[in-house]
Amino acid sequence: MKDPKSRYEEEEVEGLPAVPTFVMEHLQSLNNILANMERAGATISGEISDWCWQGVQIVEYVWGDAGRWPEGSKGNKVCNCPWCENRTKCRAFLGRCTLYQIWIAEYAIVVGPLF
């Protein structure tokens, strides 16, 4: 689902006072997704579904309107990791770091000699 590209300075939808334009665009996008799922024969439980959140946690990351960033507790594991005493422990550490490589400039160049 694509987020609105802008919040339009909080301008409202014409004819619908108190409904910001970016909210209306989000709801239209959600409507299209649900319609496509219905046409595909999928079923969705309204009781266990949550919609229109500002952010969501998916596989080690938190995604929101500001982009994505690492989920807090996993970053602590990398920061508090003990010293690597051998090649196996070094590779295990680098495996943990892989999730964060998008925030590390020239990651492949930095970790290359460690492999």
Task: Tell me briefly what this model is.
Helices cover 37% and strands 17% of the residues.
Q: Which regions contain 5 or more consecutive residues with pLDDT less than 50?
A: none
**Number of DSSP-assigned strands:** 5
> How many domains comprise the coordinates?
2
Strand content: 15-25%
H/E series, N to C? EEHEEEHHH
Radius of gyration, taken over Cα atoms and rounded to an integer in Å: 21 Å
Overall 3D shape: elongated
Please, what is the average pLDDT? Answer: 80
Query: Count the helices. How many?
Result: 4
Q: Helix- and strand-based class? A: alpha+beta
What does it look like?
With about 120 residues, this protein is an alpha+beta fold. It folds into two domains: about 1-50, no CATH class; about 55-115, no CATH class. It contains four helices and five strands. The longest helix is centred in the N-terminal third of the chain and has 19 residues, at about 20-40. The mean pLDDT is about 80.
Q: What is the secondary structure topology, with strand pairs?
A:
Elements: E1 12-13, E2 16-20, H1 21-39, E3 55-58, E4 61-64, E5 67-70, H2 72-79, H3 87-97, H4 107-111
Antiparallel strand pairs: 1-2, 3-4, 4-5
